[in-house]
Amino acid sequence: MRPLLALALLLGLALAALFPLLGPALPPGTELRLLSPDLKTLHGAWRVEGRALLPLSPPLPPRPGSEVRLLLAVPGEKPKTFSGVVDRGDVLLEKERVSLLKLLKEVYGLTLPERLWP
Asked: Can you give the pTM of this predicted structure?
């Protein structure tokens, strides 16, 4: 029982460390846009509706390993940008290489597709 408790504590601490990356909450109407580093190419756009992340446009898949920018627009707040690297239908954010899909699912409790693009 102790190893299970220790594992749960470590997982909780890891998720708590990720929590501030995108902010305390992603309310309905929050938009996420995945862009090229020069901000000229839109690779995908999604909106938080209830507990789901819904696509706003058909995705334009970026090349695996390419750099991207995530634009996060929470209603009533100034938009934020995050650097990332494309990895098999996901984006690894910032220097810590945090999975965007894992962050949205486990920390913010959103219902997501398995991948952001085919």
From this structure: 0.78
